[in-house]
Fold this protein.
Amino acid sequence: MGAGLFAAVAFFVVGQILSGFIPLHAYALMIISVAVAKIFGFLPQIVEDSASQWYQFVVKNWTFPLLVGVGVTYTDFSAVLNALTLQYILIVAAVIVGAIIGAGAIGRLVGFYPIEASITAGLCMANMGGTGDVAVLSAAKRMELMPLAQISSRLGGALILLIAGLIVPLLL
């Protein structure tokens, strides 16, 4: 697990360093560097196994306390109540239904189970990251899909950061 922790920290540092040279978010660059390392097999299997064990340890022991802590600390309940308008609720419902239908249909086309594809590819990509993944998967009673949800959140989030990093400078 120590090698997995070291690999995670090393990729975090790589993302921070690259963000000094490449005008993209450090988090997106970290995820891209992990994907490149995985695609080209730069890491030995023992390091990948260690990273997987580290991930399992963190998910099993830290997820729920972190979820409660972040939820209680960072939620401004007055802002949430002020945002609950009919228009907001309709927009949220449309996004949820669109994510479910779109991800489920495409998942079915490529041979995935539509329900699991809807949950992981649709809802977990459009939520608020790891905390949202836990909320979605626990509500769906599908916590075993956490690795797929994390991939969806990370790649989806990195994709959004990448697109925003390229488009926003053009608009300013």
Q: What stands out?
A: Residues 163 and 171 are 12 Å apart (CA to CA). The first helix runs from residue 2 to 19. Residues 76-172 form one domain. The chain has two domains: 1-63, 76-172.
